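call fold(seq) -> C-alpha coordinates
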Amino acid sequence: RDKYGPTLFGQQALMARRMVEAGVSFVRVSRAWWDSHGQNFETHQEMVPELDRVMSALHDDLKQRGLLERTLVLAVGEFGRTPAINASLGRDHFAAAWSAAMFGCGLKGGAVFGKTDKDGQTVVEDQVGAGELFATVLAAIGVNPKKEYHVGARPIPLVNPGIKPITQVLA
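ret:
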Protein backbone atom coordinates (compact mmCIF):
# COMPACT_ATOMS: atom_id res chain seq x y z
CA ARG A 1 0.00 0.00 0.00
CA ASP A 2 2.83 2.38 0.85
CA LYS A 3 4.51 1.83 -2.54
CA TYR A 4 1.43 3.21 -4.32
CA GLY A 5 1.13 6.19 -2.01
CA PRO A 6 -1.74 7.68 -0.02
CA THR A 7 -3.48 9.41 -2.93
CA LEU A 8 -6.81 8.33 -4.40
CA PHE A 9 -5.09 7.52 -7.71
CA GLY A 10 -2.50 5.36 -5.94
CA GLN A 11 -5.10 3.44 -3.98
CA GLN A 12 -7.22 2.94 -7.12
CA ALA A 13 -4.20 1.52 -8.96
CA LEU A 14 -3.58 -0.86 -6.06
CA MET A 15 -7.21 -1.97 -6.21
CA ALA A 16 -6.87 -2.45 -9.97
CA ARG A 17 -3.85 -4.70 -9.40
CA ARG A 18 -5.82 -6.71 -6.89
CA MET A 19 -8.70 -7.03 -9.36
CA VAL A 20 -6.35 -8.24 -12.11
CA GLU A 21 -4.85 -10.73 -9.68
CA ALA A 22 -8.39 -11.99 -8.95
CA GLY A 23 -9.03 -12.56 -12.67
CA VAL A 24 -10.91 -9.42 -13.74
CA SER A 25 -10.18 -8.96 -17.45
CA PHE A 26 -10.63 -5.20 -17.78
CA VAL A 27 -10.05 -2.48 -15.21
CA ARG A 28 -10.07 1.27 -15.78
CA VAL A 29 -8.39 3.66 -13.38
CA SER A 30 -8.67 7.35 -14.00
CA ARG A 31 -6.68 10.07 -12.35
CA ALA A 32 -9.20 12.86 -12.09
CA TRP A 33 -8.14 16.21 -13.44
CA TRP A 34 -4.93 16.61 -15.38
CA ASP A 35 -5.72 19.96 -16.98
CA SER A 36 -3.12 22.60 -16.45
CA HIS A 37 -4.51 25.59 -18.32
CA GLY A 38 -3.14 27.73 -15.52
CA GLN A 39 -0.26 27.42 -13.07
CA ASN A 40 1.33 24.63 -15.09
CA PHE A 41 4.56 24.44 -13.13
CA GLU A 42 3.00 24.24 -9.67
CA THR A 43 0.36 21.80 -10.89
CA HIS A 44 2.91 19.48 -12.45
CA GLN A 45 5.09 19.47 -9.35
CA GLU A 46 2.15 17.69 -7.70
CA MET A 47 0.82 15.56 -10.57
CA VAL A 48 3.95 14.23 -12.28
CA PRO A 49 5.63 12.69 -9.21
CA GLU A 50 2.33 11.01 -8.29
CA LEU A 51 1.95 9.55 -11.79
CA ASP A 52 5.57 8.36 -11.80
CA ARG A 53 5.23 6.77 -8.38
CA VAL A 54 1.95 5.01 -9.08
CA MET A 55 2.89 3.73 -12.54
CA SER A 56 6.26 2.51 -11.29
CA ALA A 57 4.66 0.75 -8.31
CA LEU A 58 2.04 -0.85 -10.56
CA HIS A 59 4.66 -2.04 -13.06
CA ASP A 60 6.91 -3.51 -10.37
CA ASP A 61 3.99 -5.08 -8.52
CA LEU A 62 2.57 -6.73 -11.65
CA LYS A 63 6.02 -8.01 -12.62
CA GLN A 64 6.77 -9.38 -9.14
CA ARG A 65 3.44 -11.25 -9.09
CA GLY A 66 3.86 -12.69 -12.60
CA LEU A 67 0.96 -10.67 -13.96
CA LEU A 68 2.82 -8.25 -16.25
CA GLU A 69 2.97 -10.55 -19.28
CA ARG A 70 -0.84 -10.87 -19.35
CA THR A 71 -1.74 -7.35 -18.28
CA LEU A 72 -1.64 -4.28 -20.51
CA VAL A 73 -1.36 -0.88 -18.83
CA LEU A 74 -2.11 2.16 -20.97
CA ALA A 75 -1.77 5.77 -19.84
CA VAL A 76 -3.16 8.32 -22.24
CA GLY A 77 -5.10 11.56 -22.16
CA GLU A 78 -7.56 13.02 -24.59
CA PHE A 79 -5.06 15.64 -25.82
CA GLY A 80 -1.44 16.55 -25.78
CA ARG A 81 -0.40 19.82 -24.18
CA THR A 82 0.86 22.85 -26.04
CA PRO A 83 4.60 23.34 -25.91
CA ALA A 84 3.92 27.04 -25.31
CA ILE A 85 2.91 28.53 -21.97
CA ASN A 86 -0.27 30.64 -22.10
CA ALA A 87 -0.99 33.96 -20.35
CA SER A 88 -2.21 32.07 -17.24
CA LEU A 89 1.14 30.24 -17.03
CA GLY A 90 -0.57 27.06 -18.22
CA ARG A 91 -0.62 24.76 -21.20
CA ASP A 92 -3.73 24.32 -23.32
CA HIS A 93 -5.10 21.35 -25.27
CA PHE A 94 -2.99 20.40 -28.26
CA ALA A 95 -4.18 17.81 -30.75
CA ALA A 96 -1.13 18.11 -33.04
CA ALA A 97 1.10 15.96 -30.81
CA TRP A 98 0.25 13.76 -27.83
CA SER A 99 1.83 10.94 -25.89
CA ALA A 100 0.80 7.54 -24.62
CA ALA A 101 2.66 5.20 -22.30
CA MET A 102 2.09 1.45 -22.41
CA PHE A 103 3.63 -1.53 -20.68
CA GLY A 104 2.90 -5.19 -20.17
CA CYS A 105 1.55 -7.91 -22.46
CA GLY A 106 5.01 -8.51 -23.86
CA LEU A 107 5.49 -4.99 -25.23
CA LYS A 108 9.10 -4.00 -25.79
CA GLY A 109 10.32 -2.16 -22.73
CA GLY A 110 11.79 1.27 -23.40
CA ALA A 111 10.50 1.43 -26.98
CA VAL A 112 9.83 4.96 -28.19
CA PHE A 113 7.89 5.59 -31.38
CA GLY A 114 7.33 8.90 -33.13
CA LYS A 115 9.09 12.22 -32.94
CA THR A 116 8.18 15.89 -32.92
CA ASP A 117 10.22 18.83 -34.10
CA LYS A 118 12.53 20.45 -31.53
CA ASP A 119 9.70 22.69 -30.29
CA GLY A 120 7.12 19.90 -29.92
CA GLN A 121 4.83 21.67 -32.39
CA THR A 122 4.61 19.13 -35.21
CA VAL A 123 5.04 15.40 -35.57
CA VAL A 124 7.95 14.93 -37.96
CA GLU A 125 8.45 11.16 -37.77
CA ASP A 126 6.08 8.19 -37.44
CA GLN A 127 2.84 10.03 -36.77
CA VAL A 128 0.33 7.84 -34.95
CA GLY A 129 -3.40 8.38 -34.69
CA ALA A 130 -5.95 6.91 -32.32
CA GLY A 131 -6.63 4.10 -34.81
CA GLU A 132 -3.03 2.90 -34.77
CA LEU A 133 -2.92 3.13 -30.99
CA PHE A 134 -6.14 1.10 -30.69
CA ALA A 135 -4.85 -1.48 -33.21
CA THR A 136 -1.66 -1.77 -31.13
CA VAL A 137 -3.66 -2.29 -27.94
CA LEU A 138 -5.71 -5.02 -29.63
CA ALA A 139 -2.61 -6.76 -31.00
CA ALA A 140 -0.88 -6.59 -27.60
CA ILE A 141 -3.77 -8.32 -25.85
CA GLY A 142 -3.95 -10.99 -28.55
CA VAL A 143 -6.93 -9.74 -30.56
CA ASN A 144 -6.48 -9.54 -34.33
CA PRO A 145 -7.22 -5.87 -35.16
CA LYS A 146 -8.21 -6.85 -38.71
CA LYS A 147 -11.03 -9.07 -37.43
CA GLU A 148 -14.54 -8.17 -38.54
CA TYR A 149 -17.66 -8.83 -36.57
CA HIS A 150 -21.03 -9.01 -38.25
CA VAL A 151 -24.33 -7.48 -37.32
CA GLY A 152 -26.64 -9.36 -39.61
CA ALA A 153 -24.91 -9.19 -42.99
CA ARG A 154 -23.12 -5.92 -42.17
CA PRO A 155 -19.38 -6.26 -41.39
CA ILE A 156 -18.12 -4.21 -38.45
CA PRO A 157 -14.31 -3.94 -38.43
CA LEU A 158 -12.46 -3.39 -35.16
CA VAL A 159 -10.34 -0.68 -36.79
CA ASN A 160 -10.69 1.13 -40.09
CA PRO A 161 -9.22 -0.58 -43.16
CA GLY A 162 -5.54 0.19 -43.64
CA ILE A 163 -4.92 0.95 -39.95
CA LYS A 164 -2.09 -1.16 -38.57
CA PRO A 165 -0.59 -1.73 -35.13
CA ILE A 166 2.72 -0.10 -34.25
CA THR A 167 4.83 -3.21 -34.72
CA GLN A 168 7.98 -1.52 -33.41
CA VAL A 169 6.61 -1.71 -29.86
CA LEU A 170 5.13 -5.21 -30.06
CA ALA A 171 7.19 -8.20 -28.96
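Residues 40-64 form the longest helix (25 residues).
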